[in-house]
C-alpha cells in the first residue's frame, strides 16, 4: 500500500499555492546555451505578453557589460527564430543587466547584492551545471541573499535516489524548503498539463480512464537526431537519466493520477506522488536498452561505452484504477522521426461482429495525445467503409490545439513566470522526484551492453517483443493527423 511522504517533504512549496512574488529575477548562467536557446526567448515572449515587468539581472563568467548583454540577447532571439518587435525588445532590453565574475568569488555576490538592493524578494534561477548548484547556493547564503529569496534549479536533480536526497539536504541547508523550486520543463508544457484537463474536465473521457476499458498505454518520446557534439555530456547520462526517469515519468503521473481534491498545486502534486508511489520498479526482463550504430565514433564518447541511446520498458501501477494495465515507455536518439505522444489503446468489444471482414479482427480504438510541435488530441475510431461488403476502417477524429487556440506558451514561459510570481504548478514535487528515481533504480548503470540499432529505425527489434505488447507499438506519424484532414481514413504510420 502507498505510504505517505515524510512530513518534512510535505512541508514544501506544494503544500500551498501562495508564495511571494519576486521583485527581480536573477539569472545565473545568462551567457550559456540554455539561456540563449530557451530562457531569453521565453522572457521576451513574457515581455510581449505584459507578464515580465521586473528586472532580470544576469550573472555569468564573462567580460560582458549591460550593452553587450542586450546585443547578445537580440542575436539569441534571432537565432531562436523569434520575430522581433522593436517596441517589445526595447522594453525587454531595459529590464536586462549583468553582474560578471566567478561563482566561487565572494566579490561576485557582493556586486549582485548591490545590483539587487531595494528589489525586495528575489528569484535566483540557476541555469548552470548541477555541480554548481550548492556552490552558488552557499555563496548566496554567505552574502545574505537567501533569506528573502527562492532558489530555482534545473534538472537533473541528482543522478540516483541517494544523490537526490543528498542534494535536497544540501540546498535546504541554505534555502528554506518552501523557497526551493525544481525545474522539469515538461511540466511547463501546456499540452502535458492538458492531459489532466482532458481527463477531468470531460465526462466523455473520465469513465474510460480505468482498467475496465484500457488495454495498455504507450508513452513515446522519440527523436530523429543523434547526440551530435554532446558526446561527453550524453555518455555520462544516457537515455534513461536524460528523459525517461524525469520527463516521461512526469507524463505518466499526469496521465494516470486520480482527480485531485481541488485545483491547488499542492493537491495535484500529492496525486502525482500517489500514483508514482504505486508504480513498480523497472524490471530488466521487461526492458530493452539500445545504442545506435555510429554512437561509438562520436567525439567524447568513451571507447566501448555501454550508455543507452534507446530505452524501452514496461511498467505497472498497482492501484485500484490501473492494476494489471501495462504502461509501455520508450525513448531514443536517431530514430525514425521526432515526436512525443501518449497513446491509449482501449480494449476491444467483447464480441467481434466484423471479424469476417478481416482475418485479424477489428483493430482497437486508440486515443492519442500529441505533446510537442503539432499538439492535440486524436481518437482513432472504427467506422464502416462506404462500400458494400467493405471492412471497417480506422479514421482519425480530434483537435489540433494550434488551429483551435492559436499560439501556446513555450514551456519556459510558464516556468519562468511561475518562478517570478511564486506559482509552483510547473515545478517538480520533491517526493515525486524520489519516486521517479526509485522506479528507475534497478536499470541505472545496468552492466550489460545495449543492443545495436540502425539510425532512422524505430530502435532495436527486441523492443517489439516486450512482454504483453500483442498489437505492437502504435508509432506516431510526423504530424498528428499525418497531413491529412480530420476524418481521413489514413491511419497513423
From TrEMBL:
<keyword id="KW-0521">NADP</keyword>
<feature type="binding site">
    <location>
        <position position="155"/>
    </location>
    <ligand>
        <name>NADP(+)</name>
    </ligand>
</feature>
<feature type="binding site">
    <location>
        <position position="61"/>
    </location>
    <ligand>
        <name>NADP(+)</name>
    </ligand>
</feature>
<feature type="binding site">
    <location>
        <position position="333"/>
    </location>
    <ligand>
        <name>substrate</name>
    </ligand>
</feature>
<dbReference type="InterPro" id="IPR001282">
    <property type="entry name" value="G6P_DH"/>
</dbReference>
<keyword id="KW-0560">Oxidoreductase</keyword>
<dbReference type="InterPro" id="IPR022674">
    <property type="entry name" value="G6P_DH_NAD-bd"/>
</dbReference>
<comment type="function">
    <text>Catalyzes the oxidation of glucose 6-phosphate to 6-phosphogluconolactone.</text>
</comment>
<dbReference type="Pfam" id="PF02781">
    <property type="entry name" value="G6PD_C"/>
</dbReference>
<feature type="domain" description="Glucose-6-phosphate dehydrogenase NAD-binding">
    <location>
        <begin position="26"/>
        <end position="192"/>
    </location>
</feature>
<dbReference type="GO" id="GO:0004345">
    <property type="term" value="F:glucose-6-phosphate dehydrogenase activity"/>
</dbReference>
<comment type="pathway">
    <text>Carbohydrate degradation; pentose phosphate pathway; D-ribulose 5-phosphate from D-glucose 6-phosphate (oxidative stage): step 1/3.</text>
</comment>
<keyword id="KW-0313">Glucose metabolism</keyword>
<feature type="binding site">
    <location>
        <position position="242"/>
    </location>
    <ligand>
        <name>substrate</name>
    </ligand>
</feature>
<keyword id="KW-0119">Carbohydrate metabolism</keyword>
<feature type="domain" description="Glucose-6-phosphate dehydrogenase C-terminal">
    <location>
        <begin position="196"/>
        <end position="466"/>
    </location>
</feature>
<feature type="binding site">
    <location>
        <begin position="102"/>
        <end position="103"/>
    </location>
    <ligand>
        <name>NADP(+)</name>
    </ligand>
</feature>
<feature type="binding site">
    <location>
        <position position="223"/>
    </location>
    <ligand>
        <name>substrate</name>
    </ligand>
</feature>
<comment type="similarity">
    <text>Belongs to the glucose-6-phosphate dehydrogenase family.</text>
</comment>
<dbReference type="InterPro" id="IPR022675">
    <property type="entry name" value="G6P_DH_C"/>
</dbReference>
<dbReference type="Pfam" id="PF00479">
    <property type="entry name" value="G6PD_N"/>
</dbReference>
<feature type="active site" description="Proton acceptor">
    <location>
        <position position="247"/>
    </location>
</feature>
<feature type="binding site">
    <location>
        <position position="185"/>
    </location>
    <ligand>
        <name>substrate</name>
    </ligand>
</feature>
<protein>
    <recommendedName>
        <fullName>Glucose-6-phosphate 1-dehydrogenase</fullName>
        <ecNumber>1.1.1.49</ecNumber>
    </recommendedName>
</protein>
<dbReference type="InterPro" id="IPR036291">
    <property type="entry name" value="NAD(P)-bd_dom_sf"/>
</dbReference>
Amino acid at each position: 500500500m502507498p505510504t505517505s511522504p515524510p512530513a518534512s517533504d510535505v512541508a514544501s512549496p506544494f503544500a500551498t499555492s501562495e508564495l511571494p512574488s519576486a521583485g527581480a529575477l536573477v539569472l545565473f548562467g545568462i551567457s550559456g546555451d540554455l539561456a540563449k536557446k530557451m530562457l531569453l526567448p521565453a522572457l521576451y515572449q513574457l515581455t510581449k505578453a505584459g507578464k515580465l515587468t521586473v528586472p532580470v539581472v544576469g550573472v555569468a563568467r564573462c567580460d560582458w557589460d549591460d550593452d553587450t548583454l542586450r546585443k547578445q540577447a537580440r542575436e539569441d532571439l534571432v537565432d531562436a527564430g523569434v520575430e522581433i518587435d522593436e517596441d517589445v525588445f526595447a522594453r525587454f532590453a531595459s529590464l536586462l543587466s549583468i553582474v560578471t565574475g566567478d561563482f566561487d568569488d565572494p566579490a561576485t555576490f557582493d556586486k549582485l547584492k548591490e545590483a539587487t538592493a531595494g528589489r525586495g524578494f528575489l528569484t535566483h534561477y540557476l541555469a548552470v551545471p548541477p555541480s554548481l548548484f550548492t556552490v552558488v547556493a552557499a555563496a548566496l547564503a554567505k552574502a545574505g541573499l537567501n533569506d528573502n529569496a527562492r532558489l530555482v534549479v534545473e534538472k537533473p536533480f541528482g543522478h540516483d535516489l541517494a544523490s537526490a536526497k543528498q542534494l535536497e539536504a544540501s540546498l535546504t541547508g541554505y534555502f528554506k524548503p518552501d523557497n526551493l523550486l525544481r525545474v522539469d520543463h515538461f511540466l511547463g508544457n501546456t499540452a502535458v498539463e492538458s492531459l489532466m484537463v482532458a481527463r477531468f474536465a470531460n465526462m466523455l473521457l473520465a469513465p474510460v480512464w480505468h482498467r475496465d476499458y484500457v488495454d495498455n498505454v504507450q508513452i513515446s518520446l522519440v527523436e530523429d537526431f543523434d547526440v551530435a557534439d554532446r558526446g561527453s555530456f550524453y555518455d555520462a547520462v544516457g537515455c534513461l537519466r536524460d528523459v525517461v526517469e524525469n520527463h516521461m515519468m512526469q507524463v505518466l503521473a499526469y496521465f494516470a493520477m486520480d482527480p485531485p481534491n481541488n485545483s491547488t498545486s499542492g493537491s495535484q502534486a500529492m496525486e502525482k506522488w500517489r500514483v508514482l508511489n504505486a508504480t513498480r520498479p523497472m524490471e530488466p526482463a521487461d526492458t530493452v536498452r539500445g545504442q545506435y550504430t555510429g554512437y561509438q565514433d562520436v567525439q567524447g564518447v568513451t571507447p566501448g561505452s555501454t550508455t543507452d541511446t534507446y530505452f524501452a520498458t514496461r511498467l505497472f501501477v498497482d492501484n485500484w484504477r490501473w492494476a494489471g494495465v501495462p504502461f509501455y515507455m520508450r525513448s531514443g536518439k536517431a530514430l525514425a522521426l521526432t515526436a512525443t505522444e501518449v497513446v491509449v489503446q482501449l480494449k476491444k468489444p467483447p464480441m467481434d461482429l466484423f471479424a469476417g471482414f478481416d482475418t485479424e479482427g477489428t483493430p482497437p480504438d486508440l486515443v492519442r495525445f500529441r505533446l510537442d510541435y503539432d499538439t492535440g488530441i486524436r481518437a482513432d475510431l472504427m467506422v464502416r467503409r462506404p462500400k458494400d461488403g467493405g471492412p471497417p476502417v480506422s479514421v482519425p477524429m480530434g483537435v489540433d490545439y494550434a488551429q483551435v487556440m492559436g499560439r501556446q506558451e513555450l514551456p519556459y514561459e510558464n516556468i519562468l513566470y511561475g518562478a517570478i510570481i511564486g506559482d509552483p504548478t510547473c515545478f517538480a514535487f520533491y517526493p515525486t522526484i524520489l519516486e521517479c528515481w526509485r522506479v528507475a533504480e534497478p536499470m541505472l548503470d545496468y552492466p550489460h551492453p545495449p543492443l545495436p540499432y540502425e539510425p532512422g529505425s524505430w530502435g532495436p527489434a527486441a523492443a517489439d517483443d516486450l512482454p504483453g505488447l500483442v498489437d505492437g507499438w502504435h508509432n506516431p506519424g510526423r504530424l498528428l493527423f499525418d497531413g491529412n484532414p480530420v476524418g481521413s481514413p489514413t491511419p497513423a504510420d
